[in-house]
């Protein structure tokens, strides 16, 4: 896999060298977010920001939670509030809180105000905690069922919630 990733980095570098930026999208299509994040952090800074800019919202959201803070700050600085809202709306609440903390203080409230009421309340609660404390690491998304719920119903619920909850440790 490492060799494959190195080849992909070489391809992307050559796309930049030739100035064929329209080929960047097809070059990363179908790649996993962590691999794209590694490429973003390997490229020279300006190129990495240009690569980040062409990603679809879902992929960009995932990549943003993985890349180094410096890259993430710069990428966020180039987005308007609505674009930031679209990205953080796709993240688990703990990741979204971490990303919002990277914004300049004067932009944080604007982004928070554009979120749904539930997202806003969750993020405001999480942002009260230090980023590395237990409260700062927890996520607000949970799955809860009653004791008498049938296992088959729990499995159905988990299948329906799999997209909205990143990690389920307990039921």
Question: How would you characterize this protein structure?
Answer:
With 171 residues, the protein is mainly alpha-helical. It has twelve helices and no strands. Helix 3 (33-42) crosses helix 5 and helix 7 packs across helix 9.
Topology:
Blueprint: H1 2-18, H2 24-28, H3 33-42, H4 45-53, H5 57-64, H6 69-77, H7 81-89, H8 93-101, H9 105-114, H10 117-126, H11 134-137, H12 151-161
- Individual helix count: 12
Tell me, briefly, the overall form.
Answer: flat
Query: The biggest beta sheet, please?
Result: none
Instruction: State which percent range the strand residues make up.
Output: under 5%
Helix content: 55-70%
> Termini separation (Å)?
35 Å
- Number of strand elements: 0
Question: Which radius of gyration do the C-alpha atoms yield?
Answer: 18 Å
């Amino acid at each position: 896999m490492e060799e494959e990733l190195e080849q992909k980095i070489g391809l992307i570098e050559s796309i930049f060298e030739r100035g064929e930026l329209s080929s960047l999208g097809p070059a990363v299509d179908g790649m996993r977010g962590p691999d794209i994040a590694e490429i973003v952090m390997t490229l020279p800074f300006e190129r990495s920001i240009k690569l980040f800019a062409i990603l679809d919202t879902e992929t960009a959201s995932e990549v943003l939670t993985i890349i180094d803070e410096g890259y993430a700050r710069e990428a966020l600085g180039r987005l308007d509030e609505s674009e930031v809202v679209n990205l953080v709306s796709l993240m688990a609440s703990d990741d979204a809180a971490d990303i919002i903390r990277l914004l300049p203080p004067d932009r944080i409230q604007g982004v928070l105000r554009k979120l749904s009421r539930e997202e806003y309340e969750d993020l405001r609660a999480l942002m009260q905690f230090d980023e590395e404390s237990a409260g700062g690491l927890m996520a607000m998304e949970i799955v809860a069922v009653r004791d008498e719920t049938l296992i088959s119903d729990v499995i159905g619920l988990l299948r329906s919630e799999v997209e909205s909850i990143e990690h389920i440790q307990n039921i």
